[in-house]
């Protein structure tokens, strides 16, 4: 009975860490209400870097052009596309005076590096306040730009927004993608609220050009293919210069991957940057993931062998109740209430998928961004 007892005490420790993590880090944001701020329209440059995104540009640029905002430009960066992305950009440029086109030619030293293309786009922008989104993203309302820009101030030079994914009926993959997106947002918004920001998503974020160049842009991680959003924020964000914006009007909506293979490849690129985060962020995020994994392994093992099963059921129930509260409040804020019921199943799927991705990344490195 010594080994089962050891597993039992380890499980108690794991559940205690999980509950402490949820209550200390995540719960305060989950119950926080979104703030709607209305300020004078400051000059904004929207940066959109696209590689082989002609159809997405045709679909989404009109909704960006129609923003209820008085002073903005759109910098369209063509990153060596081989479809008709450049022609699509030129057509928008010809019809709109507030569009600027940057055509990035193929460069052997920076081939497949989105950071190089983004840097050229940032240099070409004429305003100090920059808002970033992707070609496959559409603003959730015509107030998107007004909401995001309203969080800039003399102190706040970074604004982190929420990039949602559109819903697809009868799709397990779609629910998994949206669940992972909500959990990621819950973490990076919570950390920022606590004064330890560690990442943002390039689908919806903003920062000052001055901040970018004062910190040498992407120079410290230019050789890393991914991380134009999270690695830069991890490097320059702090408790005093970062704000969060999560009103419904401020969301962007993207089309999610439609196959597990495509999604896994995307996540491999994203996860590959985590090892370059600051050590305190690696420790906290690693602790959360490891205890998540151990919760399922130890809890299942103890239930199978029937060791102190009333206590195991009680501990599992307590942890799930607290998690459901944090995730549930957050999911409602992000208009993802349909995920709440499926949370345990989706969490198990996500944890096992992430484990397989970690192993795959140890064997081979993910390739360039497109």
UniProtKB/TrEMBL annotation:
Keyword Nucleotide-binding applies: no
Protein name: Glycosyltransferase
Gene3D superfamilies, per the entry: Spore Coat Polysaccharide Biosynthesis Protein SpsA, Chain A (3.90.550.10)
Species assigned in the record: Winogradskyella marina
Source superkingdom: Bacteria
Residue ranges occupied by any Glycosyltransferase 2-like domain in the UniProt entry: 45-212
Keyword Glycosyltransferase in record: yes
A Pfam entry, by short name: Glycos_transf_2
Family from the record: Belongs to the glycosyltransferase 2 family.
InterPro entries: Glyco_trans_2-like (IPR001173), Nucleotide-diphossugar_trans (IPR029044)
